[in-house]
Amino acid sequence: MNRYFNPVQTICGKNALSELPSLLSEIIPPDGRVLLITWNESTAQLETFVQIRDAFHVQCVCFNESNPTVEQLFELYRKTAEFSPEVVVAVGGGSVMDVGKSLCCFYGKSIASADEMRCMISEKSYGGPKAKWIGVPTTSGTGSEVTCWATIWDPTQNVKRSVESRENYAYAAVVDPNLTKSMPLSLAVSSALDAAAHAVEAYWANGSNAVSKALALGAVRTIMTHIDGLLEGDESAYESMAQGSMIAGMAFSNTKTTACHSISYPLTMHFHIPHGTAVSMLLAPVMKINAGKVQDMELLLEALGADSCEMLSVRIKDILKRAGIPCTLSEWNVEEESLPMLAAQGLTPGRADNNPVSITKEKIEEILRSIYR
User: Fold this and answer.
1) What pLDDT, on a 0 to 100 scale, did the predictor assign at position 1?
2) Residues 364, 359: Cα–Cα separation, whole Å
3) Of 143, 178, 213, which residue constitutes the final position of a domain?
């Protein structure tokens, strides 16, 4: 019997950001300590964040790295541990929220080096969070504001690591589409396709349940129905992407992802293919493998706006091309001789084995060759 659980209070819609000061007042007194992490310094100057600095004891830091590493996480911990925030407000894309929620699990502990932090992450020995956190996404793709895990990259070890605790769901998610409108089109599209992949994988994951499947279908339909509007400059599409991304996050918050994400990680790590782009390129070939094991596949295809895996492949390539994004591995300068290495590193524990059909290194290499040209 599968159960669905997600305790995150969600505030979604235009001008939702204005609710942030009152949310903080629910958690801490006026002299409470707030760590504000933003992607850039200009974001911290928005009126709502100025109000927060006036009302609380705030430390502001800027984190503008994509795919945060263990070393980068440790450096941010080193800069903020003495402040010991009671609440972390993470304002940005998935990378900012990943470091924000991760920090909550390390505060209150004495960590001397990045290697010590690496061991704690590997052994899951960090325990529960010391601080609460609030997620304020400025992209529409990761759904990180409603999940309890964070991706931390470790290129020195050629692995993707995860900081996760069931106690570390956000106190609240504040999803304001006004914050996403400054995204370049390529980032907006790549992010939207990442969210669609989250939902698709939540639908067929081994850990799926009735609620996650219903949320997944709703998220896929919302994103794929309005993604053409995003490509055509329709501002209302940003609201649909924000909603779809959050709902997709709620779907996979209980199921985790599967083979698409597992296979994508080394593509991003070694060849810097944006995560959402890498995952979207893998959706159709992985779906083709999984098709025989997915109940009510026709509902999923209908939500995607396709009647077959082949049609889905054409649809995703068209979306990527219209956004000016390369849609094959060769276009991303992936060397063909590196495919066996990428395949071997694509078997991520907790993701590959969450796929409804067992995948092997050989099967992954076959998938990679199918999207090479």
Assistant:
1) 58
2) 7
3) 178
Domain match, 167 and 198 both: no
Please report the pLDDT score of residue 297 as a whole number: 95
Residue 115 lies in a domain: yes
Q: Are 269 and 158 in contact (CB under 8 A)?
A: yes
Instruction: Please indicate, yes or no, whether residues 270 and 359 belong to a single structural domain of this protein.
Output: yes
Q: Do 91 and 171 fall within a single domain?
A: yes
Is 155 in a helix, a strand, or coil?
coil
* 242 and 205 fall within a common domain: yes
Q: What is the mean pLDDT of each run of 10 residues along the chain (373 residues)?
A: 90 97 96 96 94 96 95 98 98 97 97 97 95 97 96 92 96 97 95 98 96 98 98 96 98 97 96 97 98 95 97 98 98 97 95 96 98 97
The answer to whether the beta carbons of residues 54 and 173 sit under 8 Å apart is no
Give the angle 67-72-76 at the CA atoms, nearest 5°. 120
In a domain, 196, yes or no: yes
Strand partners, 36: 60, 89
pLDDT confidence of residue 243:
97
Residues 346 and 223 in one domain: yes
The token pair at 313 is: 């492949």
pTM of this structure: 0.94
Residue-level pLDDT at 148: 97
3-state secondary structure of 324: coil
- H-assigned helices in 150-274: 185-204, 210-231, 236-252, 259-271
Q: Please check whether residues 333 and 230 belong to one and the same domain.
A: yes
Q: Strand, helix or coil at 154? A: strand
